[in-house]
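Model: You mentioned two targets. I'll fold them one after the other.
Researcher: Yes, keep them separate.
Model: Target one:
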Amino acid sequence: PPPHGGRFFLPGGGGGGGGGGGRECGCQTPAAGSIATDTGACFQPPPDGSRRSATEEPEPAASAVPLTEEKLSLRLGLRQIAGLPAAAAEQIVAARTRDGTFSTIAEFTRRTGLGQGVIARLSRADAFASLDQDRRAAIWQALGQEQSRVDQPLLAGTDDSDDAIAGLLPPLEPADAIAADYRTFGLSLRGHPLGLHRARMEELGVTPASGLPQARDGQPVDVAGLVIMRQRPSTAKGITFVTLEDETGVVNLVVKPHVWERFRQTCRLSTAWLARGLLEHRSGVIHVVVTHITDLGASITGSEAFRSRDFR
């Protein structure tokens, strides 16, 4: 299974990158890595970790609508923001192309003609970070914008802002910022939800994905991560293949029918698992044959906003 089930570049149409089918990635170059389709097919992912380290967040000052290649990195397109209308993204690009980059949220609002709802959505996505506005400050300023477009030609050269109050708002804690990223993009470039709990995972004896190649074949292991894909091919005799992701990589699990039925509720609905099983490490292929599953969904901040790609 692909490391991200196509999700890192393809959050679904719902909030937080929710399920219900992905969208075409909009990649214009092979450097963008895998291409996933609405049927869930995804092939030839890039080397482990390259997606996270080589990707930049969307921002009105620089982003195009699709993904774009910039030197040695990829900038996420504006359409990665869940719920942002395509027409709004086009207006942003058109305004920037016509008159250059933006310096304040008020100027951005005036030049794009976008209403409060769209500005607030961009703020929740942290799209104004390049204007030195974090999420909370940007959302505060978004509340002061008009709810719908209002042309005010006499005020075209002025930009009201509430920087004084916005500057007093405390920034989000790291866990909350990562959770907010997952709700708006279905991913985060700040870190991974599991990474914030690594110390606790080590106390529980959990092996990170990066540590599995050093484990021996047949060794009992505990692994944990976000559930990024569940797959049950018709030829697999009821076996479900599950991919977990932690901050170091991915883990492929084999869940036999009797284990799935024993932990059915967690298997079907949980967004994060702690799985115990036997490691199979043969000819460079590594997976864990699962014997026990624990639901971590309620313990991992941000995981509730993540939805796996599930298909047969």
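Model: Target two:
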Amino acid sequence: MIGAHFSIRMRYFKALNSLPTARFRHCCPAPAGYNRPRPQDEGKRMKWTKGGLIYAPDGHLPWAQKHAFPPNPHFLDRRRLRLYVAFCDADTVGRVGYVDVDAEDPRRVLAVSQKPVLDIGEPGCFDENGVVPTAIVPVGDKLYLYYVGFQLGQKVRYYQFQGLAISEDGGESFKRVQRTPILERSDRETLNRASGFVLQDQNVFKLWYVGGDSWTVSNGKPLPIYNIKYLESPDGIRWGDAGAIAIDFKDADEHALGRAFVLKGADRWRMFYSSRTYSRGYRLGYAESKDGKNWTRQDQKVGIDVSPEGWDAQMIGYAGVVPYRDRVYMFYNGNSCGQTGFGYATLDEW
């Protein structure tokens, strides 16, 4: 089964990472107009139709009592779409699992992992108190899972650094590359250097991650401050020192820019990310680029916000955007950073 599905997965992800229309159509055709330049649309808002909540843990598994965040989409075959997420136990310690859905109808859940595909790290390691997936990348016959490792602090609540684990069985289990972070501290990123989104582009691994060295207090809760930065690597493991700023804060109200999700098209790069402010909490942001390095924020175009009530009425964030046939899906989290699970929306118009 794994071998039969591998070639399909590879065709899909090569298409997703570069989005040249001819190759993409071989598996899941790009939606009409996706790659076509449309300079007249500079100020146009996207239009999304929400499809509702897909999954939240029911609490029957000790390691998966609550949360399902952030959704990382990965096609197992033409119809089966896997969302890698972190489920949390009663102490809010995350472990990586998955939810498989029908790509024709993402509300139809096909399977949920009964055990972690990646568990917490050894005592004393950077990921001893939780692991959260942020990117899944096919590399040859393997899958690279980039994840955030959590370690509790005393003078700060916790530290976050980037880890990497690799699967050789089609994504059913992952083994760490090393017990230390692949993104270690830098002088400008002493508290967090994590939440990396990675894709391969022309034999170069490209990384958009968050990094920072300070904390703030919002509504009585201490929270880390970080913006989005960019690095490149020849092998997806060695990344070097602090990266260049890709997306920075727009005003004094904004104090965190969360996990990026990047799509490369023929005429532009698109980035979806989360923006945390003192006044509203988490909302989704959007930016465009000609080269994947220099970005222009266009948050007004994202076209999706919180609902009037329900599981995503207080927050919307951590988007994972994936084309499928003539559609584009956005999987995202709602209230309390995914404690209420994840849902989806379908793009009506770029």
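Researcher: Noted. Anything on target two?
Model: Confidence is low (pLDDT under 50) at residues 1-40.
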